[in-house]
Design brief:
The protein is of the alpha/beta class. About 40% of the residues lie in helices and about 20% in strands. The radius of gyration is 21 Å and the shape is elongated.
Length: about 300
């Protein structure tokens, strides 16, 4: 059997396991390359080589895991985010492309065109793998970061990712819910909080439902519990004119707008859509004309 034949057979098994054909083909190839230690160019050039017994054993073990709908990020132990590689375990959410919108919006707010100075202190609430904290620490030189999470296991993953990318000396990790017990003075707060309505957890794909932490997914009855809590806290934690940038779920735009209307210390600046046109990220400004005592 040649490498490409083994990959084709694995692809068919993954399709039968319920994985979309295009995704199955890519996953089978990535698993083969992982075992072989090949990059894409070498795979293209040498996929007609015969497989070895050691390849068959190792490849079979990985394909079997994917057949059980274990996500690729956990099988490989990593996921790319903002062109950086992050360690991923079952204790954290897998970084997703839509969360890069939070980074884009944060950097846009700090651009010269926005007329806003780069933040000296910002917070990443519900940091998980640390992808937002790490990327923004790298992109905004000199800024200090406070990254919070309720899970100590998640914080350990985030700490390793911060060390890996050379920003550990500027990121302080705190185990807490949202910003409980954390002081203010933040120029920027970002978050990819839990936002899946509790009743919809059972409908999520098995890769998410069975392998990602419920704490990082369950947003309460309407999915907005953590978002409302963070909005209320942001009023007393942000500097005047500071920004709050939050990711939210499909169909939650109206709920986010209603929550903003009940939070007079924040002004909704814009809603950003993802590449599919789905409203995905909200950007708020801390109003300077409303004091924390008035909220």
């Amino acid at each position: 059997m040649k490498v490409r034949d083994a990959v084709a057979a694995a692809r068919d098994r993954l399709v039968r396991a319920g994985i979309e054909p295009g995704e199955a083909a890519l996953d089978a190839e990535l698993l083969a390359r992982e075992v072989l230690g090949w990059d894409l160019a070498r795979y293209i050039a040498h996929s007609d080589e015969p497989v070895s017994d050691s390849f068959v054993t190792a490849f079979e073990a990985l394909v079997r895991r994917r057949e059980r709908r274990e996500p690729m990020s956990l099988i490989l132990g990593r996921r790319e985010f903002w062109d950086l590689e992050f360690e991923v375990t079952g204790d954290v959410l897998t970084p997703r492309p839509e969360t890069e919108i939070v980074v884009e919006e944060a950097l846009a707010q700090m651009s010269a065109g926005a007329g806003v100075a780069p933040p000296s202190l910002f917070a990443d609430v519900g940091t998980g793998s640390g992808c937002l904290a790490v990327v923004l620490a790298r992109e905004i030189g000199g800024a200090r970061v406070v990254a919070t999470d309720v899970s100590e296991a998640a914080l350990e993953v985030a700490r390793r990712n911060a060390r890996r990318h050379g920003v550990a000396d500027r990121v302080t990790f705190v185990r807490t819910s949202l910003l409980d017990g954390v002081g203010g003075g933040f120029d920027l707060i970002v978050s990819n909080p839990p936002y899946v309505p509790t009743s919809l957890l059972s409908t999520l794909p098995p890769e998410v439902r069975e392998h990602e932490p419920r704490l990082a997914l369950d947003g309460g009855p309407d999915g907005l519990d953590a978002i409302r809590g963070l909005m209320a806290q942001a009023v007393t934690r942000l500097t005047a004119g500071g920004r709050l940038i939050i990711e939210f779920g499909m169909g939650q735009e109206d709920g986010v707008k209603q929550a903003a209307a009940r939070c007079p210390g924040l002004q909704l600046q814009r809603i950003r859509r993802d590449l599919q046109g789905i409203p995905r990220t909200a950007v708020f400004t801390r109003r300077s004309d409303v004091s924390a005592r008035e909220v």
